[in-house]
Design brief:
Elements lengths: L2 H11 L1 H6 L14 H10 L5 E5 L6 H17 L5 E6 L9 H8 L11 H8 L4 E6 L5 H14 L3 E7 L8 E5 L16 H14 L9 H10 L4 H8 L7 H18 L5 H15 L3 H10 L8 H8 L3 H9 L4 E4 L5 E4 L2 H9 L4 H18 L1 H4 L15 H7 L1
Parallel strand pairs: 1-4, 1-5, 2-3, 3-4
Antiparallel strand pairs: 6-7
Helix pairs in contact: 1-4, 3-4, 6-7, 8-10, 9-11, 10-12, 11-12, 13-15, 13-16, 14-17, 17-19
Length: about 400
């Protein structure tokens, strides 16, 4: 059985746990390809060691880490007690908050005292577990310092981190995530993971879509032009209902040339993403632009109610943005829905805001009211993160204060 099929089996048999009591994010889009990369990262995982998945923004580091964690949990759990813990760090910019974020990720939400790392080490000592730290780059030194202590005190714990740069510690192995389609582009469109991802997302957007002798070369050229970046491919595929592959390729080539002449110092892969984001923005309606720019204020995702209160977003606009892959809908721990904006899209959206003060005031008011309404549960003793109604919004609460 391939790693990919194993992962699908794992996802199928743990769906109840993922929907109702799992800290690993559960995407509603299918994970496509990356069999070789998954096998490599899994072979690098060992107790007492760190594997850092490195790559540029939009390269698919987070999705790969999640699938590796699910696969590892499924197989390790079959031979004994085994836990996987998810620690999102994109919303953490204060290095002193890293131990608290890890404590929250392993389910410690009560008071941690003056030495927040101590309860973490106590909880993980002698445990067989996988700890996944996502988006470490902005607090890399703090992550390294924490992991040096953690791996020394908890030798049965293994760690996967995602970061744009290595954490540079002796227990670290670095996996540089390649572009989809192989380390060397161009790729064969009939066997490329990049084309498979494009087709999967295009089918979701257009209903029925397939690679044929007539469009294969064009689809391959689109994926190559986008340097095999999964985020860029997903966004481009969402345009298939309104553009033919040839029109899409011509548009991307023209936009890429114009941007290259204006921003000569921008790396090629980042230039490709800028082309995609600029084009996606230009094709949104005025109301969709207003909502997306306001949604950039959210850190770590948001609920439909929060989007309505802060960004005046109705379900129609949220659906339109999701169809264009600009936001993703994920199930939350209580069986409801949360929405997420990829960090690159979020920062792009923030730059488009015209009334920053009003949006920030609404954001602050919404989360102040939320905290006040749930003050009793917020002050409870240590409990699992998924049972805490505001645990998923700690990033927003921190950003609002």
């Amino acid at each position: 059985m391939s790693v990919h099929r194993d992962a699908e089996r794992c996802a199928a048999v743990t769906v109840d746990k993922e929907l109702f009591a799992d800290t690993l994010p559960t995407y509603l889009t299918r994970f496509v390809g990356r069999d070789r990369e998954m096998a490599t990262v899994l072979s690098m995982l060992h107790p007492g060691r760190l594997v850092t998945i490195c790559g540029v923004g939009g390269a698919g580091k987070t999705r790969l880490a999640i699938e590796v964690a699910k696969h590892n949990r499924y197989h390790a759990g079959a031979i004994g007690d085994y836990e996987v813990y998810w620690v999102p760090l994109a919303a953490v910019d204060d290095p002193t908050e890293v131990p608290t974020a890890v404590a929250t990720g392993i389910g410690l939400t009560g008071p941690l005292g003056d030495r927040p790392l101590a309860p973490v080490l106590g909880a993980l000592k002698d445990r067989h577990a996988l700890l996944v730290l996502d988006n470490c780059e902005q607090v890399g030194t703090a992550c390294r310092d924490l992991l040096v202590s953690l791996l020394a005190a908890c030798p049965t714990v293994s760690v996967v981190a995602t970061s744009r740069v290595p954490l540079e510690m002796s227990a670290e192995e670095v996996f540089a995530i390649p572009p989809m389609g192989g380390a060397i582009l161009p790729s064969d469109p009939f066997s490329s993971d990049a084309t498979a991802l494009f087709l999967d997302r295009a089918t979701s957007a257009a209903g029925v879509y397939a690679v044929t002798e007539h469009n294969a070369k064009t689809l391959g050229e689109i994926c190559d032009l986008l340097h095999g970046l999964p985020l860029a491919i997903e966004l481009a595929a969402s345009w298939i209902p309104v553009l033919s592959p040839r029109d899409l390729l011509d548009h991307l080539r023209r936009a890429d040339s114009a941007l290259a002449s204006d921003t000569a110092l921008v790396e090629e892969r980042h230039r490709s993403l800028a082309v995609i984001l600029d084009s996606s923005w230009s094709w949104l309606s005025a109301s969709e632009r207003t909502v997306l720019s306001a949604l950039g204020i959210f850190v770590g995702g948001f609920t439909r109610e929060a989007a309505e209160a802060v960004a005046s977003a109705d379900l129609g606009v949220l659906a339109a943005l999701a169809e264009r892959s600009l936001i993703q809908r994920l199930p939350d721990a209580q069986g409801g829905s949360r929405y997420q904006v990829h960090e690159l899209v979020r920062h792009y959206a923030l730059r488009q805001q015209e009334d920053d003060g009003t949006i920030r005031a609404r954001h602050f008011a919404y989360f102040l009211k939320l905290v006040e309404s749930l003050e009793t549960s917020w002050n409870t003793p240590v409990e699992p993160l998924w049972s805490n109604p505001i645990g998923a919004d700690l990033g927003n609460i921190g950003a609002a204060t």
